[in-house]
Amino acid sequence: MKRQISILLMALLSLGLQHCTQAQQPVAKTTKATMDTKKDSSVYSRTDTSKVNLTEEQWKKILPSDVYYIARQKGTERPWTSKFEKFDEVGTYYCAACGNALFKSNTKFDSGCGWPSFYEPITKGSIVYQPDNSHGMSRTETLCGRCGAHLGHVFEDGPPPTGLRYCINGVVLDFEKAKEAEKKYNESKPKSGE
Fold it and tell me: Distance between CA atoms of 74 and 162, rounded to whole angstroms?
């Protein structure tokens, strides 16, 4: 019995290390200049829903290196490094590569896994799925439904109502605060001189 428990613990530890160590390549910091270039590109849009088909060379010119590494090379950011991991603002999460709406903030939850987690995408078509058998594991990869950017993986250990956990790399997420929440916040701030 002890031998079986030891084998099980070693297997679980191995799986966890494989997922965490997938991000061996350093991820560069995104500068405002590169983010502005990306958003000024003809691809990035929060309203256009048409499919985006670019060559890897075109993506490399448009995207900051950290976003390119995750979105196009299927990289993984280190756990607990995303600015969105403990983020609790009200609004919408978008694909950082193309601007496609992915998740509402009210579907985000703290899974303790080290990456931003959600239990439901914003629409059925906002995310597409494909099998991922890399690193000796059988998982389901999540991709942006508009541009095909790698987002992360989905697991069946999430909360109700879906029971799903979309484990997403924060590097490939953009966020826009809900206008109503922002207005309420600004109205509640003390005015200067008060």
Answer: 25
CA distance 81 to 44: 25
Tell me: the pLDDT tens digits for 74-94? 999 999 999 999 999 999 999
Tokens of 72: 């196009």
Q: Residue 122's Cα: distance from chain center in Å?
A: 13
Residues marked active site are found at 167
Residue 9 · residue 1 · CB < 8 Å: no
Structure tokens at 162: 């879906």
Distance (Å, whole) CA 114 – CA 117: 9
Whether residue 121 contacts residue 102, with contact meaning beta carbons closer than 8 Å, is answered with yes
79 vs 33: which has the higher pLDDT: 79
Distances (CA, A) of 45 to 22, 73, 117: 30, 22, 23
DSSP string computed for 4-68: HHHHHHHHHHHHHHHHHHT--SPPPPPPHHHHHHHHHSSS--SS--S-----HHHHHHHS-HHHH
Q: How far apart are CA 39 and CA 48, in angstroms?
A: 13
